[in-house]
Hints:
Blueprint: H1 2-12, H2 16-28, E1 32-41, E2 44-53, E3 57-64, E4 66-72, E5 76-81, E6 86-91, H3 104-113, E7 114-118, E8 125-126, E9 134-142, E10 149-156, E11 162-169, E12 174-184, E13 202-205
Parallel strand pairs: 6-13
Antiparallel strand pairs: 1-2, 1-12, 2-3, 3-4, 4-5, 5-6, 7-9, 8-9, 9-10, 10-11, 11-12
Helix pairs in contact: 2-3
Amino acid sequence: xxxxxxxxxxxxxxxxxxxxxxxxxxxxxxxxxxxxxxxxxxxxxxxxxxxxxxxxxxxxxxxxxxxxxxxxxxxxxxxxxxxxxxxxxxxxxxxxxxxxxxxxxxxxxxxxxxxxxxxxxxxxxxxxxxxxxxxxxxxxxxxxxxxxxxxxxxxxxxxxxxxxxxxxxxxxxxxxxxxxxxxxxxxxxxxxxxxxxxxxxxxxxxxxxxxx
Length: 212
C-alpha cells in the first residue's frame, strides 16, 4: 500500500520538463500573435507593440523610444533609430533565435540547449510581489555556451503562454522581456513585416561586424 501511494503521488506531480512540453503544445497551435512588449535592460526601458508570425517574422513598433522599429525575417535584422536617423542592418546566423524566444521554434531550441527545472516548485506564484497575475516559473540553464543567454527564467501564465522572460546574457547583463495582452492567431499579413525606412536615414550594414 505504501509503495502504491508513492506511485500515485509521483503520477500527480508534473515535472518541469512535462510542463514545458505541455506549453510547447500550446505554441504549436500559434500561427501568429500580437502583444504589448516591455524590454528592460539596466536603467533603460523600452515599450512597444510586437508582431510575430510563424516561423521567423518579427516586428516591434516602439512607442518608447518613439518611432523606433525593429524587424527581422530570421536572416536579417533591421533596426531604425530615429534619434540618430540611422538604420542598423545585421545579417543573422541561420540558427539565430532572436525572433524565436516565445514561439514554437524557440521552445524547441530551449529544450535542446537548456536544462529545465522549476524555479521553486510547480505551484503558481505571483508574477511580482504586488501582481495579481499568477504564473508558473521555470529556470532554464544553458548546456552550451553557443546560446545568447546563460540563464532564463520563464514566467508562464494560466493560458500556458510566456508572459515574462528574465535573462542573463553571456556578458552577465540582465534583460527582461514582458509580454502583455497576447492575442494569438490574428491572421497578420506578411506585409506587416515589410519596413520601408526613411530615405534620409543613414544605413550601417553589419554593425556587429560578422553574422551574430
